[in-house]
Design brief:
Keywords: Methyltransferase, Transferase. GO terms for molecular function: methyltransferase activity. This is 5-methyltetrahydrofolate--homocysteine methyltransferase. It comes from Clostridium moutaii. By secondary structure, the chain is an alpha+beta fold. The protein has a single domain, classed as NADH Oxidase. The protein has 6 helices and 5 strands. Strands 1-2-3-5-4 form a 5-stranded antiparallel β-sheet. The radius of gyration is 18 Å and the shape is globular. The protein starts with a strand and ends in a 26-residue tail after the last strand. Bound molecules: iron/sulfur cluster. The site of iron/sulfur cluster has 9 residues, from loops.
């Protein structure tokens, strides 16, 4: 299992603003700018990014159509920890809704950025092992049921390692976290394409697509 702790702090401001605008006309441009600048140091101080991945032989009974041609699966988890999520809850509980909303958009964008950085590590490892990769496959996105998040967590011993579990409604216990997989196989080309937005059911709502 590979553990990645070294992530660059890069935040896509345009993407954050676009996400907030998609909620409706809640904030003026000046408010967004001012809150973004105010919250940036808080985001920087409270995020605790950790990425883990492991390339394992695909179990025979893990055989959904999208992965059945891959002999290996890359199991992945990315999280930015609970401290930053607690800070958002603090904003909301004190009635600072705008701060909470903007910080949530910033953390969502950073989680996406961290997952892209994790992909670079996965790509390099796959190249070293001469494995080709599928695009990212997330449980709940149409090809694999949402409850398979637990399967991924179990493969990576995430409860012991990251204190990360799955709730009764199959969500991850840490809000700003993701569990997903890639199919991997020696007979496939190695593509640098992490997301396949063209087949994603979230495409119409997603502010991160093809970014
Ligand atoms: S639309 Fe693209 S970026 Fe957004 S979740 Fe789907 S695959 Fe990922």
């Amino acid at each position: 299992m590979e553990v990645i702790l070294d992530f660059d702090f890069k935040l896509n401001k345009a993407q954050v603003i676009q996400t907030i605008k998609s909620y409706g006309k809640i904030l003026t441009d000046e408010e967004m700018e001012s809150l973004y600048n105010k919250l940036l140091p808080i985001v920087y101080e409270t995020i605790e990014p950790v990425g883990i991945f492991d390339i394992q032989k695909r179990e025979e009974n893990f055989n959904f159509k999208i992965i059945k041609d891959y002999n290996y699966i890359v199991y992945c988890i990315i999280t930015i920890g609970d401290t930053c999520s607690k800070k958002i809850n603090e904003f909301f509980s004190y009635g600072n809704m705008k701060e909470g909303m903007v910080m949530d958009a910033m953390l969502t964008s950073y989680l996406f950025e961290a997952s892209s950085q994790l992909f670079n590590h996965i790509y390099n490892k796959s190249k070293e092992l001469k494995l080709g990769l599928s695009c990212r496959i997330s449980p709940g996105d149409g090809e694999i049921p949402l409850q398979y998040q637990k399967y991924i967590l179990d493969r990576l011993d995430a409860e012991n390692f990251l204190n990360l579990t799955v709730t009764d409604s199959y969500m991850l216990s840490s809000t700003h976290s993701m569990a997903y997989i890639y199919g991997a196989d020696k007979s496939l080309p190695l593509s640098k394409k992490d997301h396949d937005c063209s087949r994603c059911p979230n495409r119409d709502l997603c502010n991160m697509k093809n970014s």
